[in-house]
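Researcher: Please generate the 3D structure of the following complex. Treat every line as part of one assembly.
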Amino acid sequence: MNYHWNWGIYWEASPEGTGSYADMLWSGLLVTLEVSAIAWVIALLIGAAMGVVRSLPSPWAKRISGTYIELLRNIPLLVQLFLWYFVMPELVPDAWGDWLKQMPDAPFWNSAVGLGLFMSARVAVQVSTGIAALPRGQQAAGTALGFTLPQTYWYVLLPMAFRVILPPLTSELINTIKNSSVALTIGLAELTARTRAMQEFSFQVFEAFTAATVIYLLLNLAATWAMRLLERRLRLPGYGAG
Amino acid sequence: MRFAPRVLSTGIGIALGLAALLPHQARADGGTLQKIKDTGTITLGYRESSAPFSYLDDNQKPVGYAMDICTRIVDAVKKELSLPALKVELTPVTSATRIPLMANGTIDLECGSTTNNVDREKQVSFTNTHFLTASIFVGKKSANLHKIDDLKGKIVASTAGSTNIGQLDKVNADRKLGITVVPVKDHAEGILMVETGRAAAFVMDDVIIAGLVASAKNPAMFALGDEAFSKPEPYGIMLRKDDPSFKALVDKTTAAFFKTEGPAVYAKWFTQPIPPKGINMNLPLSPAMAKAMKTPSDNPDPASYAP
Amino acid sequence: MFSDFDFDAILRALPYLFRDGMSFTITLTLLSALGGLLLGTLIALARIGGGKLLAMVAAGYVNFMRALPLVLVIFWFYFLVPYLGQWLTGAPRPIKVGGFSSALLTFVMFEAAYFSEIMRGGIQSVARGQSSAALALGMTGGQSMRYIILPQVLRTMLPVLLTQTIVLFQDTSLVYVLSLTDFLGAASKIAQRDGRLVEMYCFAALVYFLICFLASQAVRRLQTRVAIIR
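Model: Done. Output below.
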């Protein structure tokens, strides 16, 4: 029952015939990065839009954004991915459904969009909190300068709000990377899935998982570091002591 | 600058984790029989959709040909240890979890459809072969897929952790087919991928595919490929490696089983209607398997089973 | 082929879904939340009041856990815990740990990192003057923590702790990857057996949504109450 350690396993050829186990993990890391990047862009765009809608004075706007946020926040990510992947293609017209299913990268795009939307609800909450945290005078100043409401948001409120919420956004970015691992359930060959494949082929459970653990820690540090750098570059004199 | 302490503290975390792992490397073990005696429990690993070997019936209870064999082994263990009250626990396993769970002591016997091959024999052990099966693919009839090359550029599913996905990966790389291989968690998910059009084909052992197709909503929509990915390979009940006393008991029990009631139990699962839907596999004992029942063997080499 | 949405398929599966699946999910959630809160509070105390080394180890643990995807941690524990048990108890062989126990341990260890951050924030937000006052009354540091600070922290942080528990409730669905029969696991087993993916996953989504939505509304109401009291 003893576990047979083999730390040299990473350099042995994998039975897939496309390189070593290290190459396998590397390909998974790339997929994790790609999916996370696309999901993050989607989360930022839709999250910002929904956050703005949520901060508008109209009750209808609040209702729409509220429904959006509650729907996405109260269903587990795994179930949401299943809904996008297994359920949606059956509910749209057959031709669209077939097109969706036969995309060669269906798991990839499904994961990116599903994860992006899931995270967008969280970003939306942060953005509207950020806008609410700004002094009321800022909006008035925008109006006084002759800006329309969209212009005030675009030139005044959003740039300020994003600076305010950069620290919480950092942890949401890290969450996006971590959550991308859930996509292994719909067949996405991301880092955790490739780690599992390495475990299944080589039977070296702990070597495979140790490598993945170290890689996730490094990703985490890299993301934190990059966001810190961004925070420092964007800091405005007179705002935030840091 | 909170950055440096963070790196340091995270490093400590990793070190702690690894330190916990290392010390137990070399330790004598008391064998599975001793374990069963000490705990009064034997744990069987079962599959959820490996019909007719090991699968869930209408009450979500595991049944099947391999489960029947395991029941005989459990009876033999009871007798051997004089433990009539031996508790039997059931744990679901997948192709991907069965080997680590066997190694880490979660399950004592794996009763399913696990291919016995040389690679796996380095990690685990197998008792006498209970079936022989080749790896093939299944697609939709309307898609007209016959040879492996017909899968070129398509999405093909196979079960994560199976020998089949390894064979598919290898053929894909060797013949440069550009297939997108999608791993699925279990066989049922694989056939559903084909049924719903998510994948063009599902690669699995022929007998598993036959069972899945037979119990599908519309069996006529599927067609099997003509080209196999492998020769017929042996299935065995899996047990832990380096455990001679337990293996001897299991080997003795299964050998006696195959020589006596083996063909009858086989017939019950492969030539008669089986639960939950009353389908009939219509797979009479092949000459090779009939030979393997007369002269039970745990040889991982497919060539040794030629009739 | 799925144009016929089969409500009957859901009805027939209801007993299994709730008796086996949902009871697993809820037991796992409640026990993990309790265990995570206990361990998390200890970790928070170690970071605030422990020695330098202890504080660093505790911080290392929290940062480590929070850096990893839950899916990876679930796999780690499922395969590793039997060996850990062997090492801790000095047993001659890996300890057999069932699926539920393994999942429970995973979630307790994982959530403790998150609960500890909540408790740490809460402890630090209680005015320093209060612990000074307690010390002036002759209480020891431990007594002031136990009788003055922690009760206040638990009360003010209750909504945040409950919100985290709702997140935990959603996260337990990830034991699907181990083929355990939680609510989602049960739904997917039926879905795959009967070829009713659309029905079962829509129903699972609806149930999760209703439970989490109602729970979070209740937490919000509680929040305003707690706020009024203070």
